Hints:
Organism: Thalictrum thalictroides (Rue-anemone)
GO cellular component, one term: peroxisome
Number of domains: 2
CATH class of the largest domain: Mainly Alpha
Strand content: under 5%
Number of strands: 2
Largest sheet: 2 strands, antiparallel
Helix content: 55-70%
Number of helices: 9
InterPro entries: AcylCo_DH-like_C, Aldolase_II/adducin_N, Aldolase_II/adducin_N_sf
Protein name: Acyl-coenzyme a oxidase
Order of helices and strands: HHHHHEEHHHH
Strand order of the largest sheet: 1-2
Structural class: mainly alpha
CATH topology of the largest domain: Butyryl-CoA Dehydrogenase, subunit A, domain 3
GO molecular function: acyl-CoA oxidase activity; methylthioribulose 1-phosphate dehydratase activity
Amino acid sequence: MGYCLVRTDKKDDVARFLVKTVAQLGSGKKLVGTTSYMGRIEHLIQCRCDVQRAEDCSKPSVILEAFETRVARMNVACARNVSKMPNPEEGFSELSSDLVEAAVAHCQLIVVSNAWSGIIKAYPKATVVLVRNHGIYVWGESWISAKTQAECYHYLFDAAIKLYQLGLDWSTPSHGPIGHAQKLLDADSDTSSIVKENIKQEKIKEAEELEEGEGVDETREHKAGGGVAGTGEDKVGVVEKAKDSG
């Protein structure tokens, strides 16, 4: 949670403004601006947090409603206590600490709501927000659109993770080796030596299999009265060449 800095003299002004706003709720006047959420005062006073899982606590809508509920209930309580005093000024003086807390909570609500709306304004065509070490928030014109977007992003993220596990850089069109994978192959380390040794053994094995295949062909040619087969020196040369190339 971020800090909300408000000047001391401004806190009193905000507190008075909020108390007057609560007093106007019964007049039927529509509230606008930063106090528009007060128009749902009955819902905010009685509402219960719709959280089914731990992950739901990080939903923007849940967080925003929690701030709105907190501020609304604090302001209603302050307004009722002020109304019980002989005069408003005495009430403001007696309840100054509670009023200041309500004013600070209102300012924190403004910070939270502006932060979320700022993301939407900065990226109007975006349909998802990726939150580091948490997950994603997806939205759309309808639940079908949001579900489609979620499936697409799920596929892309899954593909990116698999490419990373293979040592490939998913963030570039070429999908070349990522930094640590390239260093693993190039560096003069024990792991790199093992990789090189395995490649060398594979080449030797391929050469030996090729030699065995040529031996079978040579036998068949002799039986059929064919031409002269390769000598033993040629066979040894193939294996030695494979060892040298490794």
